[in-house]
Specification:
Elements: E1 5-9, H1 20-27, E2 31-34, E3 45-49, E4 61-65, H2 66-72
Parallel strand pairs: 1-3, 1-4, 2-3
Length: 77
């Protein structure tokens, strides 16, 4: 089974890039793309973006707000 593409979105300066390595480890991703602009992505990629365009979301993508991703990873109470 392929790993999903994990898309984490939140406002600039919220901590996405600072916590990218820990989030990638938690979600089992082996690649990080910061400042995603809708380009094609391979399975197992953690994507960080300020905004998610609905047309960019593809089947198999898991889209999470930054705060939810942090809670799931146990990095925030």
């Amino acid at each position: 089974m392929n790993k999903p593409v994990i898309v984490i979105h939140g406002p600039q300066g919220c901590g996405k890039t600072r916590h990218a390595q820990a989030l990638a480890k938690h979600f089992g991703c082996d690649r990080i793309v910061d400042d995603w602009e809708g380009e094609d992505l391979r399975a197992g990629t953690l994507v960080l973006t300020n905004d998610v365009e609905p047309a960019s979301i593809l089947p198999g993508m898991v889209v999470l707000p930054f705060a939810d991703a942090m809670r799931r990873a146990g990095l925030q109470p």
